[in-house]
Design brief:
The protein is an alpha/beta fold and about 450 residues long. It folds into two domains: about 5-25 and about 280-435, Aspartate Aminotransferase, domain 1 (Alpha-Beta Complex); about 30-275, 3-Layer(aba) Sandwich (Aspartate Aminotransferase, domain 2), CATH 3.40.640. Helices cover about 30% and strands about 15% of the residues. The strands form four sheets. The chain has a nine-stranded mixed beta sheet with strand order 1-9-8-5-4-2-3-16-17, sandwiched between helices. Strands 10-12-18-15 form a four-stranded antiparallel beta sheet. A three-stranded antiparallel beta sheet has the order 7-6-11, with no helix packed on it. Helix 2 crosses helix 8, helix 9 packs parallel to helix 12 and helix 10 packs across helix 12. It binds pyridoxal-5'-phosphate. Pyridoxal-5'-phosphate binds near residues 159 and 185.
């Protein structure tokens, strides 16, 4: 049972928020409806039309790649990117087999499962690479270890968590050393910038195959949708072909490859097209939210999700916090339930999330690491120390490193909705501060 915090003396005087504050919800501006109406008026209510053509051009130009292919979801983009990498590396499989059958792929561990499920769609085995504390993304040291253990691996899937770019310079250097390809999952980081070898570039242009998402909770949205981004005309053409059922040049339906129905609709593209001019405005609002939390948490034992100030500019999609180790009250999590013991001066993510929920604000646990997910428990997990599985020993003290599990245990995603007012955010900050009252 969730504790009734409204009767908890720590929260005396706080009124529930009048309007629910969401984690991250869409913000529309009006232009979106005009483009959708245009699609209706011209009867391009299908997976072709001006909105698709224009938004592909605009996004490609913004990201600094030659081609963008608009798809039904970020997941579709990740699937086709992963399949394309598999085909490039290992050739075209039979129709009933994936391109990665019998192959290993090194994958970000703390991410949404859509990043890495395509490895399974393609019959490969995801090997999870532990996280680092500097950006909460794939740890290059653990990646190097993984190549030492599995030197024949040729593909890496790397995500930028919560809009913060990972250590791409190091990751790309390691990939080059081992002749490996990179699928970049920039679903959460559209508009985030990274300094690669002294040059500022956009996330979504850093891999061999790059993916973004326009899901309803993202920095801009089409209600759904995603894009595949590339400099290769051949790859763009292939993804467009696969996404529209792999039709060959024949008067009838003729197929030599497996196809998918993954193309973006011209209606969705109209929404994305209307949103796109507001990308920077959304990023600025998200940044203000992150900074207000940072200042608001001064003096309590927590810190914000970090980023490399020299080498990256996040899009601040989700503001997150992590509790100092010695300020954690006891918290345990099962597969779908949890328990914690309230302790004066201490707190834990589940207590804070419960308190926020009761006052009308939506937070979320940190994405549970993939190596801890029941479905992937049999898959290898590599840390900076090597094999991350089976690390304890009944006769020796200590249990090895697992940074992803630690961030999951001590961190949480804060309400980051750009429609949240300053007053609402101040109440949220007040609630969180009171969780740590001594
Ligand atoms: C890191 C990451 N990758 C992939 C996806 C999948 O994108 P979509 O929902 O557009 O399929 C999401 C979010 O939804 C995500 O957060």
């Amino acid at each position: 049972m969730i504790k009734d915090f409204t009767k908890d003396p720590r929260f005396a005087g706080i009124e529930p928020l009048k309007n629910k504050v969401w984690l991250a919800s869409p913000m529309m501006h009006g232009k979106e409806q005009e483009y959708v109406r245009e699609a209706f008026d011209t009867n391009w209510v299908t997976t072709a039309g001006t909105n698709i053509n224009e938004i592909e051009k605009e996004v490609a130009a913004y990201i600094g790649v030659k081609y963008a292919v608009a798809l039904s979801a970020g997941t579709a983009s990740l699937h086709l990117a992963t399949k394309l990498a598999g085909e490039k590396l290992y050739g075209q499989p039979k129709p009933n087999a994936g391109t990665l059958a019998g192959r290993r792929v090194f994958c970000s561990d703390v991410t949404f499962d859509a990043s890495i499920n395509p490895v399974a769609y393609e019959d490969g085995e995801a090997i999870f690479i532990d996280t680092e504390y500097d950006t909460w993304n794939m740890d290059p040291i653990a990646l190097e270890k993984a190549f030492e253990i599995y030197p024949d691996t040729k593909l890496i899937i790397v995500a930028h968590l919560y809009g913060t770019p990972g250590k791409m310079e190091e990751i790309k250097r390691i990939a080059d050393n081992y002749d490996a390809l990179i699928v970049e999952d920039a679903a959460e980081s559209l508009g985030a910038k990274y300094k690669l070898n002294g040059q500022w570039v956009e996330t979504g242009s850093l891999g061999d195959y790059n993916c973004i998402s326009f899901n309803g909770n993202k920095i801009i949205t089409g209600s759904s949708g995603g894009m595949f981004l590339t400099d290769s005309k051949e790859d763009a053409d292939k993804v467009r072909k696969w996404s529209t059922q792999s039709r060959e040049a024949a008067p009838w339906y003729q197929h030599e490859e497996i196809g998918y129905n993954y193309r973006m609709s011209n209606i969705v593209a109209g929404i994305v097209r209307g949103q796109f001019p507001y990308l920077q405005e959304h990023i600025d609002k998200k940044k203000t939210i992150w900074e207000r939390y940072k200042i608001g948490f001064e003096g309590i034992p927590v810190s914000m999700n970090p980023f490399d100030e020299e080498k990256s500019v996040p899009n601040y999609w989700l503001s997150c916090m992590i509790i100092d180790k010695d300020a954690m009250c006891k918290q345990v999590r099962g597969e779908s339930d949890y328990l914690y013991i309230c302790e004066q001066g201490k707190s834990c993510p589940q207590e804070i999330l419960d308190a926020l929920a009761l006052f009308g604000a939506e937070g979320r646990p940190i994405w549970k690491p993939m190596h801890m997910q029941p479905i992937y428990r049999t898959h290898p997990f590599i840390t900076s120390e090597g094999n991350g599985r089976g690390r304890t020993n009944a006769y020796i003290v200590g249990n090895g490193i697992d940074i992803g599990a630690d961030i999951f245990a001590r961190g949480l995603c804060l309400p980051s909705d750009i429609k949240m007012t300053e007053e609402e955010q101040n109440i949220i900050i007040d609630i969180i501060r009171r969780c740590f009252i001594k």
